[in-house]
UniProtKB/TrEMBL annotation:
Residues 1-20 are annotated as: Disordered. Pfam families: AAA_16 (PF13191). Residues 18-177 form the Orc1-like AAA ATPase domain. InterPro entries: AAA_16 (IPR041664), P-loop_NTPase (IPR027417). It comes from the Bacteria. This is AAA family ATPase.
Length: 400
């Protein structure tokens, strides 16, 4: 019966009972909501960090905050497929309108959608070419998206509400659509309309946005989401267990050491210790018994799938990174250890970054996007002959 009450939620993007250490980001979200309801505009928000630090969970909490205050919120996970991303956006906006509880506002917003759809059809029928918010040639999708956002925001502002677009894995979005969305944030801000992009992605996301549109650095508040401090980690374990059980002091110390402040690890090791215990408070022996189970869960959820979807040359590159034993490696030292020249490995390096397996903190440097990936490779020594998951899109389902 005790195990049925396990309060930990291991898994990608699952909402934990306790969201510790993210108060500054939640305060920013609170301010955006308050300013929107008061009729003022603000900048959007970009959260970037390694996998497993809780970016998706944070994005979900922010969306819930907006919905609780009556604002319109649309959430999507970006892909590398522009057609699919447009469908997710346009469909998400339509669903958000249908979810509006205020009947008169919902009817007015539905009229807006119908008008935008009619205009889009007419423009297509007559082959009329217009410009987007960035003064670039408009596709029918980008034009429809811009018209829909602008018209919805004009109506929402009259009701002291606004439209918030929550995008996960934003770095994955095709450049043209990313540019359209950045342009929308810019144009709506200039017109003092309540539209905000609240997005999360890998550590290279700020650079990707600026590369897409140079003025992106001025449109958003940027927050680096890292691992929790020791005190925040302790708080997370204690608060998660409230009303259910507690950990003995030495058990809690060991859990803090094992989890290293990464929310994904906190949930995995906390859950395994809870399942391994038959008493309360939970002793160190239960943490020790559950350690192998938690590590296997993390290996399967974070590491193995990423190794499987890398090509043999990418696996060789990652193995060299792991053997160097550093959080951040230079391209030149990787080439030296591999017995290659830097140009010979440049294409492999680029593919690893494009696949989201690594990122470049700055020019000439590279690091894993998943904390502990190097330790996993050294510990497991996974085979470079495993089946190669060449369809990167299908592999996205395993991302944390």
């Amino acid at each position: 019966m005790m195990h049925a009450l396990n309060p930990f939620m291991p898994g990608a993007g699952r909402k934990p009972r306790e969201l510790a250490g993210r108060e500054p980001e939640l305060e920013i979200m609170d301010r955006i909501i308050a300013r929107t309801k008061a009729g003022y505009s603000d900048r959007g928000l970009i959260c970037s960090g390694l996998r497993g630090v809780g970016k998706t969970v944070l994005l979900l909490r922010m969306r819930d905050m907006a919905l609780a205050q009556g604002l319109m919120a649309v959430r999507m996970e970006a892909t590398s497929d522009a057609r699919r991303d447009y469908e997710l956006l346009l469909g998400g906006l339509s669903k958000a309108v249908l979810r509006e509880r205020n009947k008169s506002l919902r009817e007015r917003l539905l009229d807006v959608l119908k008008h935008v759809n009619d205009v889009s059809i007419e423009l297509g029928a007559f082959g009329i070419s217009l410009k987007t918010a960035d003064d670039a040639p408009a596709s029918s999708d980008s034009l429809q998206l811009e018209m829909m956002v602008e018209e919805l925001c004009r109506e929402l502002k009259k009701r002291h509400s606004g439209l918030l677009l929550f995008i996960d894995e934003f770095q994955e979005m095709p450049n043209d659509l990313m540019g359209t969305i950045i342009g929308l944030q810019h144009a709506m801000g200039q017109d003092d309309l309540p539209f905000y992009v609240i997005a999360a992605g890998l550590p290279n996301l700020p650079g990707v946005l600026t590369k897409s549109r140079s003025y992106a650095e001025r449109l958003f508040q940027y927050r680096k989401i890292g691992r929790l401090t020791e005190s925040q980690t302790k708080e997370c374990f204690i608060d998660t267990m409230k009303g259910v059980s507690t950990f003995e002091d030495d058990a809690l110390d060991r859990l803090i050491q094992l989890s290293q402040g990464y929310p994904y690890f906190i949930q995995a090791y906390g859950s395994a210790a809870f399942e391994a215990s038959d008493s309360s408070p939970i002793p160190l022996s239960a943490v020790n018994r559950g350690e192998a189970t938690a590590r296997a869960s993390i290996d399967d959820g974070l590491y193995e799938s990423r190794w499987q979807r890398a090509s043999q040359s990418e696996r060789t590159y990652m193995r060299v990174m792991a053997e160097l034993g550093k959080e951040v490696c230079s391209s030149s030292e990787i080439a030296d250890k591999a017995g290659k020249t830097t140009p010979e490995l440049s294409r492999t390096r680029k593919r690893l970054i494009e696949a989201g397996l690594a990122y470049s903190p700055e020019r000439g440097l590279i690091a894993f996007t998943v904390p502990g990936m190097g330790e996993y490779i050294r510990r497991i020594s996974p085979s470079e002959e495993q089946a190669y998951g060449s369809d990167r899109a299908d592999a996205r389902a395993s991302r944390g």
